[in-house]
Design goal:
256 residues, alpha+beta, Laminin, 3 domains, two-stranded antiparallel sheet, disordered C terminus
């Protein structure tokens, strides 16, 4: 047996020398990221096998035989056979974790699928204590309390720093369009294009604008971007000026 194990190690090393794994495959993710990585791959396997059936049987046969493919060891084996092969980063780490957590995954699989928690909650949060539930952060999984006027975490326009992990400080990290402690304002270079009691929508200013704008299009620029000049255009009607508007137009230098 020792000789077989030694030969296996030698063969693996030879394969790695001939076809070394990529940096993405050998990347090591933090504990919560690594657990979530495996869970995501496992759930993809569940999706891939959801229409499967036991060999030689159909739904009626399964009911008569008292067996169900959906909760069978056959399906579990089909899922684990492809486990971690579809992850973008940390494949090697994922395979190691799959081996270490194999019994835990089997325990979760054996529970009633109608009442058991999702795998991430059961494995990463409750069993291994490496993650937090959504919108909770830090070593004690404190709830994210940065709520916007609409009652949503970070107004629904960002995320709680560390949310879902055992890290972070719970403050808001706003999406690029938004700013403010709870992401309830439009960031520089954006304007309020829609707002009601539950949602604020900020859209990007026209490319000819620099900084803030009052709306969409070049007419709403406060200051022109580099390469554009402010052009005050007089609009005429019936022989007299009705009003004046400001817009930014591309500046072109012509030379002979």
């Amino acid at each position: 047996m020792q000789m077989v194990a030694l030969l296996s190690v030698v063969l693996v090393n030879m394969v790695h020398c001939l076809d070394p794994p990529s940096e993405k495959a050998t990347a090591k993710l933090p504990p919560c990221g690594a657990c979530t990585n495996l869970v995501t791959s496992f759930e993809a396997g569940m999706e891939r096998t959801k229409r499967g059936k036991l060999e030689g049987g159909d739904a009626a046969w399964e009911e008569k035989a008292g067996q169900r493919y959906a909760t069978s060891e056959v399906r579990l084996a089909e899922i684990t056979e492809q486990l971690c092969k579809d992850v973008g980063r940390g494949e090697a780490q994922c395979h190691v974790n799959a081996g270490e957590w194999e019994e835990d995954i089997e325990t979760w699989w054996s529970e009633d699928p109608d009442t058991r928690p999702d795998l991430r909650q059961w494995l990463c949060v409750d069993k291994l204590s490496v993650c937090c539930p959504p919108d909770h952060y830090g070593p004690d999984c404190a709830p994210c309390t940065a709520l916007g006027p609409n009652g949503k975490v970070c107004s629904g326009n960002g995320k709680c720093k560390g949310g879902g992990t055992r890290k972070g400080n719970g403050k808001c990290q706003c999406n690029s369009e938004y700013s403010g402690e709870v992401c309830d304002q439009c960031n520089e270079g954006h304007y309020q294009s829609f707002k009601d009691d539950s949602k604020l929508l900020c859209s990007a200013c026209h490319k000819s604008c620099s900084g803030h704008c009052s709306g969409g299009g070049p007419k709403a620029c406060t200051v022109c971007a580099k390469g554009y000049i402010m052009n005050r255009a007089r609009l005429h009607g019936y022989g007299r000026v009705h009003y004046q508007q400001t817009l930014c137009q591309g500046q072109v230098l012509c030379q002979q």
